Structure formats: C-alpha cells, structure tokens
Amino acid sequence: MGWPITGRQREKFSSITSMLKYAPQLPFVLKGLTVTFPGGMKTGIVGRTGSGKSTLIQALFRIMDPTVGQITVDGVNICTIGLHDLRSRLSIIPQDPTMFDGTVRHNLDPLGEYTDNQIWEALDHCQLGDEVRRKELKLDSPVVENGENWSVGQRQLVCLGRVILRRTKILVLDEATASVDTATDNLIQKTLQQHFSGATVITIAHRITSVLHSDIVLLLDNGMAVEHQTPARLLEDKSSLFSKLVAEYTMRSTRT
C-alpha cells in the first residue's frame, strides 16, 4: 500500500470532523471543525486546556471516530483503513515518554524490523549513542518497567529515536517537550528539522515558542478552529488570540 504519497502539497491530512464526542450522552468536544493540513508542512496546534487539541490527535489515530463527518489523509477516509495499516503509517512522540521492561534494542525496535547499524544511527542522531556505548551490554542493556533507570529527558530521546527509525510521512508531537528542559527541547526540535524536513509534522504545543517556526498555526477554542494562518501573520495582528497567547507566555517566562 503506497499510501500516503510523499511530496509537498500532494499529501493532505484533511480533518472534516463536523462533530465528535466521547460518549452519546456527553457534549461535543469538536464542533464543526473543518481544516486541512498541507502535505510536507509543519502545523502547530495551540489553544487553552480543553480546546480540543488532544481530541483531534486521538481522532487521527482512530482512538475515537468522528460522530459526524470524516478525516481523510491523501483523499482516503481513515475509517475505511484497518487500525494496524493506519497506525503503521503514523508516528507520535507523546508528552509522557513510554519505555517498557526489556532492552534498549527492543524499546527502539520492538518488532525487530531494523539492523543494529540502523539502530545505532538513530541513537547517534538523538544524542544517545555514546550513552548506550558506555553500557556493558550496549543495545542489549536492560530497561526496567517504565524506563525508571533512564531520566525523563533520555526517555523522550528514545521516543525520538523510534520515530527516526520509522521515518513515517506523518509525525505528531503531542506536547512532546512539555516535561523536558530547554536544552533537550532544542535538541529535539533541531533533530526533527534535520530528519523530517519533507514530512507532514503536526505539533501540539505546551511551550508556545515551539510553534513559532511552524509553517501554519491552527488555534482551537472550545472545539472549533478560530485561527489558521502563518505565525508571522497572526503575530502581526495584535488582536489575534495567538498573539495574545504568545504575549501571555512571554510575560510568564519573564517573571520566572
């Protein structure tokens, strides 16, 4: 299955999710949301807590399906695709990095799809190669449950190594740098720019500065898309919600 197609502007992730709710008796979380993410471009999704950011990503991975409407990727309704086929073509770096009981190798390549050289290359790209080489068992070094013998920053870099290995055409960052320090955040951003320059990258931002270099910013409010424009245009408009969020973030950062 050669889906999705590579190439800027050819691959489109279009959310035509008119309505979406968690259960029939609950209110809608996404309300009449219609938005297109151009292929090969970086889109940052921002909004206050409860605006629908994470719900939109859950819908993309089909953790929940739209109540009304559809989500299409490259013209294909994702509800017509098997979950394994869909998710094998998407990558995500979550806010809470996930590691499991096993080895370094199995945490990076749980299905045994890649060579040792490819795994080492991914580790070097995410600045963990030297750390693993210092361990006696190298790639077979043990990882305890939840990766407790690794720091939070290292766990997030392992997640980065996974997506570098897979090189999917659509990458989601779900507040991926919310729990790491600024240096690790900068490393992740730089690595993604180097290795996913032609991919469609969707970023849910905790630090609003993470989306300032995006091609497009989507601002959600109460489950609706209220702004969808380049960061520069939105910052020029001092009345835009995005401009106000950046000002609030800058003020908080100055105080701390």
Automatic annotation (TrEMBL):
Membrane topology: Multi-pass membrane protein
Subcellular localization(s) per the UniProt record: Membrane
Database matches in CDD domains: ABCC_MRP_domain2
Domain called ABC transporter: residue spans: 14-247
Keywords from the named record: ATP-binding, Membrane, Nucleotide-binding, Transmembrane, Transmembrane helix, Transport
Keyword Hydrolase set for record: no
Main location: membrane
InterPro entries: AAA+_ATPase, ABC_transporter-like_ATP-bd, ABC_transporter_C-like, P-loop_NTPase
A Pfam family: ABC_tran
Highest taxon listed in the record's lineage: Eukaryota
This protein's record includes keyword tRNA processing: no
Example of a GO cellular component annotation carried by this entry: membrane
GO MF, any single term: ATPase-coupled transmembrane transporter activity
PANTHER family given in the database record: ABC TRANSPORTER C FAMILY MEMBER 3, ATP-BINDING CASSETTE SUB-FAMILY C
Family from the record: Belongs to the ABC transporter superfamily. ABCC family. Conjugate transporter (TC 3.A.1.208) subfamily.
Identification of the protein by name: ABC transporter domain-containing protein
Organism, as annotated: Triticum turgidum subsp. durum (Durum wheat)
